[in-house]
Predict the structure.
Amino acid sequence: MQIIKPKEFFRNLPSKQCPECGTHINEQVESYLMECDHCLSKRDE
C-alpha cells in the first residue's frame, strides 16, 4: 500500500463542478456549497 502525502492528495482532486450548469467552481476555504454563485442567485428569485 502506497502512502500519499496530504498536500499531494488534495492537489490531485478534480475541481468541483456545478451540477446545475456544469461550470467549474472556485472553491473557498470552508465552503460546502455545491452550486455556483449564478445558479444560487437564480434559486433565490
